[in-house]
């Protein structure tokens, strides 16, 4: 089997390695700007091809032509996007080459924040009140019905990139007008104070085969805008929150039509009502080292399992390995130091340390959830004092 992987950013090394372990021929299409800086696992890749890019954006027609040219001499059996920003390109290529996998219509529900909210609402799922930045009269009615603050969100960016919290009517219209012709690529959503949870899932033939439920410490949007330490940890197993989120997550993925693959989906627990609301979903593994968090707690690597799911393709059985039920917590921060020294953090529960320039990160693991939470609180305070740097929030993705 030949698998073509698309990666406008460097990620998914373990996906590539697992494809090789499974005996696949691996082709990688990536950005020309990464040619001299990415450290791809070359022993797991048969051929690498480079696309000219403008801030990691590939021209659609050029990409279709380039992959069609490759297909003259190579039989491509699967096309897999390793990053959120490659989902639409992969879907277009599948449609064009008639390769099995998620098409453009379904992909929209996993990329477009407006489409996924409309679909969720249509299927009876609760979401924060929202409005498309399209008709100005409709927006005006919305702002008079829903009190500030509001969240202005780009429809096609990932995570907290480009999101703005707006507290005043005049400021909101100032931002909308500044968008010009880009206005329709945004939505406005009611800001809801509460805890943010994420559910990381493996789906095979519409059946959920693995679920991990976690809660962020400080919400990602607050870290993105205010700086500080990003954290997340596995929730208490068997708890009311875990049970509710498992049920809601199954309804969300069924509504979006995920047949097979992995998903990272986020929910908010309204601090005032205690109810969970759907925020957004994706057809990819979670970013920000969430894969390493899940692996520390369960023993499953979501990149590897995703590769197995893609290779099985609905034609053969897929069974995930038995998962451990440990607890784990993740901390990540920008660092003032180029290569932070975390040797003074020496508790035996530490199972992973980040190795990235101007970043610091740790994962702790224990059978005792309270021990994990205790270490996260201690380390977050120490990291803020020892390492943390801040940077302005991003309006566009970076590598």
Question: What does the model show?
Answer:
- The chain is an alpha+beta fold and about 400 residues long.
- It has 3 domains: about 1-100, Rossmann fold (3-Layer(aba) Sandwich); about 130-190, Dna Ligase, domain 1 (2-Layer Sandwich), CATH 3.30.1490.20; about 195-385, ATP-grasp fold, B domain (D-amino Acid Aminotransferase, Chain A, domain 1).
- The chain has 12 helices and 16 strands.
- Helix 1 (about 15-20) packs across helix 11, helix 2 packs across helix 3 and helix 3 packs antiparallel against helix 4.
- It starts with a strand and ends in a 13-residue tail after the last helix.
Give the structure's gist in a few sentences:
The chain is an alpha+beta fold.
What would you give as the CATH superfamily of the largest domain?
ATP-grasp fold, B domain
Q: What composes the largest sheet?
A: 8 strands, antiparallel
Look up the CATH topology of the largest domain: D-amino Acid Aminotransferase, Chain A, domain 1
CATH class of the largest domain reads: Alpha Beta
Going across the biggest sheet, name each strand in turn: 13-12-9-10-11-14-16-15
Secondary-structure element pattern, one letter each: EHEEHEHHHEHEEHEEEHEHEEHHEEEH
Overall strand count: 16
Oligomerization state: single chain
Number of domains: 3
Describe the structure using short key phrases.
single chain; 399 residues; alpha+beta; Dna Ligase, domain 1; D-amino Acid Aminotransferase, Chain A, domain 1; eight-stranded antiparallel sheet; four-stranded parallel sheet; 12 helices; globular
């Amino acid at each position: 089997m030949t698998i073509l992987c698309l990666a406008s950013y460097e990620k998914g090394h373990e996906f590539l390695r697992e494809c090789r372990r499974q005996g696949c021929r691996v082709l990688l299409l990536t950005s020309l700007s990464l040619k001299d800086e990415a450290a791809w696992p070359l022993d797991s890749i048969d051929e690498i091809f480079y696309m000219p890019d403008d801030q990691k954006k590939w021209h659609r027609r050029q990409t279709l032509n380039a992959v069609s040219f490759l297909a003259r001499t190579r039989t491509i059996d699967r096309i897999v996007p390793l990053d959120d920003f490659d989902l639409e390109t992969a879907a277009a290529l599948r449609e064009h080459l008639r390769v099995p996998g998620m098409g453009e219509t379904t992909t929209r529900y996993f990329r477009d924040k407006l489409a996924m909210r409309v679909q969720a609402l249509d299927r009876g799922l609760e979401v924060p009140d929202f409005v498309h930045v399209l008709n100005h009269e409709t927006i005006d009615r919305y702002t008079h019905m829903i009190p500030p603050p509001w969240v202005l969100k780009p429809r096609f960016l990932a995570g907290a990139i480009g999101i703005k919290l707006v507290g005043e009517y005049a400021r909101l219209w100032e931002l909308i007008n500044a968008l010009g012709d880009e206005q329709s690529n945004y939505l406005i959503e009611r800001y809801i104070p509460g805890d943010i949870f994420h559910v990381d899932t493996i789906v095979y033939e519409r059946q959920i085969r693995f679920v991990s439920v976690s809660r962020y410490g400080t919400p990602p949007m607050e870290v993105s805008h205010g700086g500080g330490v990003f954290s997340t940890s596995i929730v208490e197993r068997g708890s009311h929150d875990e049970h509710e989120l498992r049920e809601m997550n199954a309804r969300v993925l069924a509504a979006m039509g995920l047949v097979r693959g992995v998903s990272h989906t986020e929910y908010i627990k309204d601090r005032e009502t205690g109810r969970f609301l759907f925020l957004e979903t994706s057809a990819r593994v979670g970013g920000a080292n969430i894969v390493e968090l899940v692996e520390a707690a369960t023993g499953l690597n979501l990149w590897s399992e995703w590769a197995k799911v893609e290779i099985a393709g609905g034609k053969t059985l897929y069974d995930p390995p038995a998962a451990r039920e440990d607890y784990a917590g993740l901390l990540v921060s920008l660092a003032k130091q180029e290569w932070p020294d975390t040797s003074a953090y020496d508790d035996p529960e530490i199972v992973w340390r980040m190795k990235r320039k101007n970043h610091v990160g740790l994962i702790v693991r224990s059978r005792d959830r309270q021990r994990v939470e205790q270490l996260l609180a201690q380390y977050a305070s120490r990291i803020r004092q020892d390492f943390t740097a801040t940077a302005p929030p991003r309006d566009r993705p970076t590598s």
